[in-house]
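In keeping with the milestone schedule agreed at the kick-off meeting, the structural modelling team has produced records for the first pair of proteins. Each record is given below as a sequence line and a structure-token line. The laboratory manager (R.T.) confirmed that both were archived under the project's standard naming scheme.
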Amino acid sequence: MPIDKPIAPEPTANHDYDDAAVGSFSEAQPWVVDPDRLEWLNSTVELRARTRAQVPVLLRHRRIPPARRVLGTGFSLGVALLGWRIFDRRRGKVASRQGLSRRLRRSFEHLGPTYIKLGQIISSGEGIFPVELVDEFRLLRDHVPAEDFAIVQRTIEADLGGPLENFFADFDKRPVAAASIAQVYFATLLTGEPVAVKVQRSQVSDLVRRDLAAMSWITPHLIGRIPVAALANPPALVELFAETIVEELDFRLEAANMLDIAGVLAATDQRSIIVPRPHPNLVTRRVLVMERLTGFKWDDAVGMHRAGIDTTAVVRAALVSFLEGAMLHGVFHGDLHGGNLLVGDDGKVILLDYGITGRLSEAKRLGFLRLLMGGSMNDLPTQIQALIDLGALPVDTDIRGVIDDLGLEEPTKDPTQMRPEEILAEIQELTKALLGYGARLPKELMLFVKNMIFVDASLATLAPEIDLFAEITYLASYFMTRYGTQISADIGMEVSPNAIDLGGLKASLGVDGEIEHLSYRELKERRELIRKRMEQAQRHGK
């Protein structure tokens, strides 16, 4: 039986209807997006609620584990840990972490699509997870073998309700992308429009559900046994992973996410970011046909410069749109990385892959708003309260106590002038104090931080000479000027460009408060100096 059987595509372009009002799309308009005429869209609210309701069931505590998968997973991870203990653990901290990361990556590859997807999420978490783990797990992005096309074709034909030739004039059997959950192909509709076709792997849905059950049983037993960042909150990572991957298993939800993000971009008039149009008819649980958009790879700064594209404007547009979505609408793309972003010849950013989309409750949206506004005004109590609102600190946290215990108002220390053992002691004291307060990294904040880290890293390629202090002042002024009335009403405090104070930011970077300019290249050099000193000290056992 076909799933939500679509009808064969007919020409859908309607030049009397402009879908720019409902989303930020390309000007090519191969067809129009009219939400009132999308049959697959009508069921997505109920479908999303049903899908989310599955998560606590999949993650419920089990006295008796799902034996076969737990044994298989436990054996694979156990072999990785045993190999690390025997061969890598005593080789020094850097070599030890590298060895463990390599063995875990190989274990994840062996365990299949669910674990590969988890590894890909971890690989985008630079700054949250150890750098060795992030670097090693990045290999999982490009090492996923494609499923045989005969199987892919059966999936497409079962979901669309007929042979390929009923829908496509041409279909390239070579995937342009092969990921853990799905593969993407280029094709041409009978009506002549070039499209991208995303097809779910045939057995992945059942496998993911078995794996989540196994993960929920295994994860508590791994806490404290694998040396990852203490504040990364592994249980929250599994919960976040479950929520995102279960929704990724239904492409109707992904298509709805595309329209929601496109709608936010239209509402904020961010036309420098565009979303591919999902096809009005050809969207099912396992098949998503969308407008084909092409452009420069995100890190191809040389190619963009040759085309006359202002790469600083490109990364600024991506950051502003991301912040507007989170702060003002509570909806944002949850998995920004180089593979999900292209830049068109016109300099517009093309945003791809909406399987992971952050959706904030009103209370948490206001928490993000307070956190960012408090940071731009160096208002420490507001920032601590925001972390409480976001669930990063317990509700009964003593705000003044946190500020005093963490020394947040003490004079700035420049880490480039500190000995490695001093830096390590500072980090250990800070971690100990945070854990003492019950600090954790909630899943929404984890997604947000992961995206901000990606944008930060993008500056190294796209805008290395940008003046960070001037740029942050610009961003804060932009929000306070354009949305000041709304923000003031939302968070109950007056915001104004006149109140911008970068003292807290400079302190967090270890920069003297008198310094007025800092390029990203200079910041990167500072970080690299600190990293090298730490590694040298660790190698010599200091």
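The second protein of the pair:
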Amino acid sequence: MSVDTAINQDALFAQQLDVLKKHLAADPRSLRSLFVNDGMKAVAWEFQQGELAEGFTKTLWALLLRDDDMSTVLQRFLWGLPLKFKRTFIRALDAHLSDRYPMFKGLSEGWPAENFIPPYVRPPEDRSRDFELVNQGYLGYQALGYSLREVDLFVWLEVLRDKQCEDRPCELGVIMERHKKSEKIGGCPVKIHIPEMIDLLGKGKIRQALELIEGCNPLPNVTGRVCPQEHQCQGVCKHTKRPIEIGQLEWYLPEHEKLAEPDRMARFAGIVSPWEKAEKPPIAVVGSGPSGLINAYLLAVEGFPVTVFEAFHELGGVLRYGIPEFRLPNSLIDDVVAKIDALGGRFVKNFVVGKTATLEDLKAAGFWKIFVGSGAGLPTFMNVPGEHLLGIMSANEFLTRVNLMRGRDPSYETPLPEVKDKNILVIGGGNTAMDAARTAKRLGGKVTIVYRRTQSEMPCRVEELHHALEEGIELAELRGPTEFVGDHHTHFVTHAVVDVNELGEPDASGRRRPQPTGEQINMPADLVIMALGNKSNPIIPASEPNMKLSKWGTIEVEENSQETSIKDVYTGGDAARGGSTAILAAGDGQAAAREIVGSIDLDAADIRTRVKTADHFTGLGQAEHTVTKHIDLANGIVEMTVQAPVVAQSARAGQFVRILATEDGELIPLTLADWDVEQGTIDLVIQGMGTSTKLMNKMAEGDAFAGIAGPLGAPSAVHGYDADKETVVFTAGGVGLPAIYPIAKAHLAKGNHVTMIIGFRSADHLFWTGEDERMGLLQAKYGDQLDVIYCSNDGTFGIEGFVTTPLEAMLKDGKTSKGRAIAEVISVGPPMMMRAVSDLTQPYGVPTVVSLNSIMVDATGMCGACMVPVLTEEGKPLRLHACIDGPEFDAHTVEWDKFMPRFHQFKTQEATSMKDHGLG
């Protein structure tokens, strides 16, 4: 084609467009027919010529950029073209627009099967030092100066690659032979209609595509970020070499809406709260992870009053505590929460179902049906020698400290292990290992991922491993730690003894089994992060004896259902699957919602009663934890009475609560000193030891804690004894008194004789000892049933010496106190005191119990921070958790040499924090 001919054709095309503009101004609705009749001839003629002229291509692109009715019609025209003409269009972009758009350069080579416009990924040298989003998707191109409309067209060009397959493998999956059996592979767990979504995008209908997704999945910007699309929708894409970027398309839609429609929540305006309408019975959702959020959203859309109960002080579950913001910004979780809130859903934070209330309690509170999405949470360790050393923690703990508790922000109180310029080993090869490794790298560590197989067997997402290696993280393949060695003085880990492996025969997973070669190496380590998977959290199952569990501890569901063995209780996600993926969890939440939406077998009056009752219970859970009384007991020791009605209702002797004083504070476990069910209050005694507790003690009446969760831990085991012949001896040092007080009361109420040995540093540290104070009133009530012995270190009050002084005298006196045999000893107080009591009673064979509120992060078994090393009856080492298995332990099974150093793990960080706050 000659240059003159091309110019004439461009002029003709321009004339046709002028005609279209005039018709559009006169009658916008006639655009489609006018375009087809008057303008399409020129466009179609151009596409018949084999190659598109430069002028035509630039004009066509300019029209597409207009973002008006004309551009939409052009998009639909191009979308509907046969593949050979789409290739013509892509070649033209490559040839004529690649100077303006470098991502078009070479795009036509192998398009559509092997080439595409990739989403924008920040360079590793920039991203490895901050927590900003790494894969910024197509919207990331805006940072390079491209407009939102240009980005829309980049997305549309990705959609043009679609084959429009009739068998819909991306949505439905395919049947394949795997591990010697046929099974369904791929597909979408939340059943997004992917072909329809792509068709709408191909036609320029972005808003409609988003509405289609949100009809079944309210969190596309979350699942689009973290779903393993390479194993789901993209894993079975007909473009086997370069699948369609379905996950990026899914994430793009809601993020585009934020930019294109800033008032995006306006569509929820005018919705009457289901709680006010009271037309459907209330639903309780346990956990605000992916399964809980999608379940709550879909039920709220259907008009059900929904309350989401979350154990943490922030919503999102594993999405917030487990996934770093460079992969999933918290704002995306907040978007989902905002939608549920706009639909009338309600949220109760710091509420641990199974402790604060059981499932039966929720039913009694009016909730018709319950969905349990409590996650997995309980971390796995290797159980190898040296694992108790300081500087060895679970990935859950590490990520929770960084993500949920914002330890990386200097303005927050949660301490982090020393990472900068330290040797960090991350053990494991899954997505959690990648998250932990990349987080440690951003904190300045020299990070090595240690994996027992080779890179090709790693279960993590390929993209995450690729990004980790780009960021300078090392990978030690075929390596398996067998022992950790530490410094005998500091008790911190110094190196790992590692087996060098080789791959043997495939195991049940289909991957070749690693086996030692006999060679071992030492790998230096200042911090070891265990990312070996999680078990299901046992809190809810432990509170529901009728709930059927699998041999792995997961909650079993009925066949082809999400309902558990308990009627009207449903479950999904990691609680039922064990450690799994966010998208599979979301699919379970969606499936459960479909079941729950079925026929309602309640009359209108019953529904209204249930809604009223559940509304009241929800309100109690949402009540602020306000300080109603503040008493300075002694030097640095404060007693507070705090409003916490749901905690008070469930509290039992020996349990504790998890306290967050302020949003930027540290989570602190405190034993319950007392509670009043009628008043809805709990009593706490706080000794100002570190930054957080000293700041708590400055709180005044009327102030409110940011969160109190509980009661946590197992209640004390109160056995019955012959009060005439036996006595239960309590030893308490300092603020151990408030901890043993409710336990002693429980024993007295049961009819046991109690001997309390209470120690103080000096007379200046006394509290509760006056006749009109707690101990005096307790003695007045129980008389001879209670003996109280006071001690002080300096002899200024009671017997001079420690609590072990009178205890030792009793043991030497035939293990008796005033003629009564010592049935058991219960000790609470400073760790050194509890160990001394344990060492003292062990030779005499006297049963001894200690309460070990060691360092905790979440206090629900999720992080593993409160590790207690014990020995079984057979002498085998066992790792238990104070918050799940305790807080009370048989003192004679605790490995004190391994346990005691844990109280000093963050001693350096605490000293720095105290100095920064001017607290000494």
